[in-house]
Amino acid sequence: MRTVAETGSTNADLLELARGGTEDGLWLRAIRQTAGRGRLGRDWSSPEGNLYASTLVRLRPNDPPAASLALVAAVALQETVSTFLVAGICQGTTDASETLVLKWPNDLLLADAKLSGILLERADNAVIVGYGVNIAHHPDLPDRATTDLAAHGVVVEPAMFLDILADSFARWIGRWRTEGIAPVRERWVDCAHPAGTALTARLPDGSGIDGLFVGLDTDGALILRLASGERRVIHAADVFLL
């Protein structure tokens, strides 16, 4: 695990290291980022006090499909945040009624507000999994509510948070490699909004689809039931709760 005071993007740095032969399992954390990125090329706000970290996964011949690493990344983060929320509830600083749910493919919502971003990028057999977690601050976004852990009574240093996250990620990668996608998908669905939740999917071509959440297919794609009764499988989209 490496920490730098400042960089443009931990994902970009790890992509370069991966091309140079860096081995599986390295984590890189930045105290500050100057060019953080979200999905679809969006800028990611990076004030000091939040977590900005990426890890390298080297794909092996018998690994499940690389796209399913999005589910691995999500369940590891949900497990980590849940650990700190439970601690806050026990200490009386966090409201036990606040919900923590996953939204496809890897957004984590706390009290219906976006808490984090996860960005996966690939170069040959290397997949970079990048995390941005709102620990002490959160940006104001025009199209969705956002929050941070401090706003919910959880005070934790990014380095400590990453220690727990790295352990959780390693456990889930181990299960993904030895047991396949099934246990990861099952955990993801258990931590997601309930079946029947109304969602809208904004597709890469700009069109939108409204439907009810059914679950995930065997590869981890989103399944929506449309008003017509048709089931639509979504492989790439921005998804919002209705």
Could you characterize the architecture of this molecule?
With 242 residues, this protein is α+β, with helices and mostly antiparallel strands. It is 27% helix and 30% strand. The chain is built from four helices and 13 strands. A five-stranded mixed β-sheet has the order 1-2-3-8-7, sandwiched between helices. β4 and β5 form a beta hairpin. α2 packs across α4. The longest helix has 23 residues. The N and C termini lie far apart (39 Å). The model has no long low-confidence stretch (mean pLDDT 92).
List the defining traits of the structure above.
globular; 5-stranded mixed β-sheet; 27% helix; 242 residues; alpha+beta
How many strands, which pairing sense, and closed or not: the largest β-sheet? Answer: 5 strands, mixed
Order of helices and strands: EHEEHEEEEEHHEEEEE
* Tally of helical runs: 4
Strand content: 25-35%
Helix % is: 25-40%
**What is the arithmetic mean of pLDDT?**
92
Instruction: Give the C-alpha Rg.
Output: 17 Å
Distance between the termini: 39 Å
Give the overall shape, derived from the CA principal axes: globular
Question: By helix and strand content, what is the structural category?
Answer: alpha+beta
Oligomer: single chain
Question: What are the SSEs and their pairings?
Answer:
Layout: E1 2-7, H1 10-19, E2 27-33, E3 51-58, H2 69-91, E4 100-103, E5 107-110, E6 113-114, E7 116-123, E8 126-133, H3 158-179, H4 181-191, E9 198-202, E10 208-216, E11 222-225, E12 231-234, E13 238-241
Parallel strand pairs: 1-2
Antiparallel strand pairs: 2-3, 3-8, 4-5, 5-6, 7-8, 9-10, 9-13, 10-11, 11-12
Helix pairs in contact: 2-3, 2-4, 3-4
